[in-house]
Specification:
heterodimer; A: 376 residues; mainly alpha; 16 helices; 76% helix; B: 312 residues
């Protein structure tokens, strides 16, 4: 029994060529169901974020909604024209309203409504006139803090804007912040880390001095000072996060370069006459790049989390930007209302939770898959 | 030992100098005196007022003079007066430190205790569903924003269920009742990351040879875990604790703001909202010095526990 089972495995092992580091990592990742699942969520998030950024979905995130829309009013008008006798001035006024809606839109209809109300009241249908007056009023008042319903699955905010659409737009903002931050800190960390590790000596001393200094200032305070200096705004938050966040990766890169510069393949490259620049970026960098990818995946989470805190402090997103940090920050006042407005907080927190969870899980499995130390 | 400490102290000099340079670049070079004056005096200030402000605060002097003044300010720990409250910044910081510590120290050490207990417990059940569930719960806990923990915790446990006072502070022992809720929230929010960290440390130790030897001798699981593994795991644990200490002094910006605790975090937040550059600069510098000193203490502890460190 035992031998029968083992035989095919052995055959396979002989046939199968050795996997590269990346091939091996991909194999490990694909075997882990949780990481495949989290990767799917990340891809979905990217699709949603980019289409929101291109203006394909959630386009009405900045438009206020009203308590009643024009179609509700049109329906009411049509049903009224059935009860009111044809050809009367009231019926004509109703027809005018509907025509205005078709031709010039909602605003034109609202302007004509009072006249229609007067005419209908004149015909003696007082209850119908009141109904029309009421809907006219509702059409003009913004649907502020409407609780979740089929129309707005996450309700509306103080200005009557759809919270769900704003949460969707928030994906684009968080993606921008995380990407800008990542580009900045990865470029700095890779460049300085490789130089320090490869050249050693005084170059190493200076770079170590720079990052030890930076690491000495407590992270949040440094972020605050930087955004304080750069001014409010999401771009500045992203830049500050990038300028502050490179120390960890730089340390890793430096240690990795220290190790790799002694390896045979570097010696071989040198013997073939490759310059320092070529060795650093063409030969050693591909062998250490997995660290960059792991750090990128986990860095996403810290970018999203930091945006929330900095926005709450008043250094991040401006008041009208649909960022998750903005929504969570405003929840403090919104929960204190009666009845409590919990949906912007719930929507933003849930969205953040899903994205951060996916990146956390994927980053972890990535580390397990790529870190050679774990391969025994 | 003394030689080691002195060597470490000498290493600190360039770092402290670097921190001074960094705060100087941030607050005197990147932000010009004119920008600060405009922020402080508001949009209606005329040129004359701005000129007076710049002269008063020494922004018109050459940069090297500014740097020299800045350095003497920082070295003597005399940061001048706040531009908003006109109080001495040193005494503001000194007064803010105690409320911060009264909140952060108990919360931190309680969290530490709980996290290490859970880590040891999961190590007992490693590679079972208990261990895996704990790891998943940790990642779930790490994926929620700290701000959401605070807002929801305060709303549900404070406003709705009224188990704890919503916010407040008093000097003396009565403060305890105000600190339970923020402490609990601190623990909930940071437990995930902590448990995961200590679990890794414990598992690292469990895979060492001496553990196998101890088990082979016939010692039972608990003795090995608490007498051998925990003792060896103390080295990275101490390092982490010592490095976290300066952050405890600085308090928590968000917790202190939400629960009305007049600590350093609240001080920093007020300074940000009031554009109080001098206070931000002072807090940044003090935080950095605390961090550098804590690192030094950590290294010394390390070398006391593990004599090999000095040789490197």
């Amino acid at each position: 029994m035992e031998e029968n089972k083992e035989q095919p495995v052995l055959d396979q092992a002989e046939e199968e060529p050795g996997r590269s580091l990346w091939g091996d990592a991909l194999y490990r990742l694909r075997r882990d169901k949780l990481s495949v699942f989290s990767f799917t969520i990340i891809v979905l998030y990217l699709i949603v974020a980019i289409s929101a950024g291109l203006g394909l979905i959630a386009t009405k995130y900045d438009d206020p909604f009203y308590k009643a829309d024009e179609w509700e009013a049109a329906g009411l008008l049509k049903s009224m024209s059935g009860t009111i006798e044809d050809g009367s001035p009231a019926d004509a006024a109703i027809g005018e309203c509907l025509a205005a809606l078709d031709k010039d839109g909602k605003e034109a209809m609202i302007r004509l409504l009072p006249a229609a109300v007067r005419e209908i009241a004149g015909t003696g249908h007082a209850n119908l006139a009141d109904k029309l007056k009421e809907i006219g009023r509702r059409m003009e008042s913004t649907d502020s803090y409407a609780p979740p319903s089929w129309k707005h699955i996450l309700g509306t905010d103080i200005q009557g804007r759809d919270v769900f659409q704003r949460v969707v737009q928030g994906t684009w903002i968080s993606l921008q912040v995380a990407l800008i931050m990542s580009v900045i800190y990865i470029v700095i960390a890779v460049f300085l880390g490789s130089l320090a590790g490869y050249f050693g000596g005084w170059v190493d001393d200076i770079i170590q001095w720079v990052y030890q200094t930076l690491a000495s200032v407590p992270g949040l305070l440094l972020l605050i000072s930087l955004t304080f200096v750069l001014g409010q705004g999401l771009m500045n938050v992203a830049i500050a996060l990038g300028v502050v966040g490179w120390v960890g990766l730089c340390r890793l890169m430096r240690a990795e370069y220290l190790k790799h510069k002694e390896r045979d393949y570097v010696l071989a490259a040198k013997a073939l006459g490759a310059g320092h620049f070529r060795i650093i970026f063409r030969h050693i960098l591909p062998n250490t790049f997995h660290l960059v990818i792991i750090s990128f995946s986990l860095g996403f989470v810290s970018a999203i989390m930091s945006e929330v805190v900095l926005t709450f402090i008043g250094l991040g997103a401006k008041a009208d930007e649909p960022s998750w940090g903005r929504m969570i920050s405003e929840a403090r006042a919104e929960l204190a209302r009666d009845p409590a407005v919990w949906w912007p907080l719930a929507g933003a927190t849930a969205a953040m939770f899903v994205v951060c969870l996916a990146f956390n899980i994927f980053g972890d499995s990535l580390r397990d898959a790529l870190d050679p130390k774990l391969k025994v | 030992m003394t030689a080691y400490i002195i060597r470490r102290l000498v290493f600190l000099v360039p770092i402290v100098f670097g921190v001074m340079l960094l705060t100087f670049v941030l607050f005197n070079v990147v932000t010009t005196g004119e920008a600060i004056a405009k922020q402080r005096l508001g949009p209606h200030a005329d040129d004359e007022q701005i000129k007076v402000f710049i002269k008063q605060h020494g922004y018109d002097k050459p940069k090297y003079v500014q740097f020299y003044n800045n350095m003497t300010e920082l070295i003597t720990f005399d940061f001048g007066r706040s531009e908003v409250t006109q109080q001495k910044i040193t005494s503001m910081v000194w007064r803010g430190m105690w409320p911060s510590l009264s909140l952060m120290l108990p919360s931190f050490f309680f969290t530490l205790l709980v996290a290490i207990s859970i880590a040891l417990f999961t190590a007992l059940y490693r590679n079972t569903w208990i261990d895996r569930t704990t790891v998943v719960l940790c990642i779930i806990g790490m994926s929620v924003s700290f701000l959401a923990y605070i807002i929801i915790g305060q709303y549900v446990l404070g406003y709705q269920l009224k188990y704890f006072p919503v916010a407040g502070y008093e000097w003396g022992l009565g403060v305890f009742k105000f600190l339970i809720l923020p402490g609990l929230i601190y623990m909930t929010a940071s437990l995930g990351a902590n448990v995961r960290f200590y679990r890794t440390i414990v598992l690292d130790e469990i895979n060492q040879d001496y553990v196998r030897t101890a088990r082979a001798k016939g010692l039972n699981q608990n003795t090995v875990l608490f007498k051998h593994v925990l003792k060896n795991a103390m080295i990275p644990i101490i390092t982490r604790v010592v490095i976290t200490l300066p952050f405890l002094f600085m308090g928590s910006l968000l917790l202190e703001d939400f629960y009305g605790i007049p600590g350093l975090g609240a001080l920093a937040l007020n300074a940000i909202n009031g554009n109080d550059f001098a206070v931000i600069k002072a807090i940044t510098f003090i935080g950095a010095i605390l961090y550098v000193l804590a690192n030094l203490v950590g290294d010394i502890c390390y070398s006391l526990v593990d004599p090999r460190v000095q040789l490197k």
